[in-house]
């Protein structure tokens, strides 16, 4: 039985949705309680939208695991048999990276094996449950280039012990991302080069058409387990040849049709590493950081 057939009879998420009306006192998913007084403020996490004064408010970060066959094999899995599986990162794991710059990215604590994973990211402006594959891309507002940074030793160690492995994936600054480009301008990203270099040396090199589960299929499958909402973003998986970086390394990422993304690994105590990802940035500042001549990519 191949992977797609197996999915029809097996679910890896196993989540049953409970109606909010059956839980007195519980808020509806994504519902904001306006006017409520709180003892402190939690800043909104946003991503700049290219060519606009608007920014995208992030609600949830979903990620798919092992979505390129060769990467699944290097992680010890059989891509012909596994249904898709997903995990989440905290919203404030976002680190906005301006094209044309090299952002300082702090090497995290507790790890000696820090890995890069380059990915296409889809940002949703509408949502729902049980979304058909045929209409899934209608929910995508924009696309971006992102990194799913991973404390590989912690990820593997917790996995080997059959324990939750958020500590390996869901930590501060673990989701660097470039500005969002509207789908109406780029078209869907169903094919095109995706690569990553470290210090100028090519490490990851593939094509988006090598995804096992397309972006549309990912959205559809996610919506069977969660009610997707405006503000959700989906990291769509990474090609093979993930690997480690150390302090001083420079990562360059590329997807055809999007501006490159560049980060430099620095000590967490480095002055430039004090990146205040939660501090709001004005739209005019975003426009200054992302000039059109640097962001413009060929229409897709």
Strand ordering within the main sheet: 4-3-15-8-9-12
Molecular shape: globular
Helix content: 10-25%
Question: What structural class is derived from the secondary structure elements?
Answer: alpha+beta
The description of the largest β-sheet is: 6 strands, mixed
Count of strand segments: 18
* Cα separation of the termini: 35 Å
Share of residues in strands: 25-35%
- In N-to-C order, the SSE pattern is HEEEHEEEEEEEHHEEHEEHEEEEHH
- Average per-residue pLDDT, rounded, comes to 83
Poorly predicted sequence stretches spanning 5 or more consecutive residues: 5-31, 274-300
What is the radius of gyration?
19 Å
Number of helices: 8
Summarize this entry quickly:
This protein has 300 residues and is α+β, with helices and mostly antiparallel strands.
Note the main attributes of this structure.
300 residues, alpha+beta, six-stranded mixed sheet, 8 helices, disordered C terminus
How are the SSEs placed, and which strands pair?
Elements: H1 3-9, E1 46-48, E2 55-57, E3 60-64, H2 69-74, E4 86-89, E5 94-96, E6 103-106, E7 114-116, E8 118-124, E9 140-147, E10 150-151, H3 152-160, H4 166-169, E11 175-177, E12 181-182, H5 183-186, E13 193-198, E14 201-207, H6 215-225, E15 232-235, E16 243-245, E17 250-255, E18 261-266, H7 283-289, H8 292-295
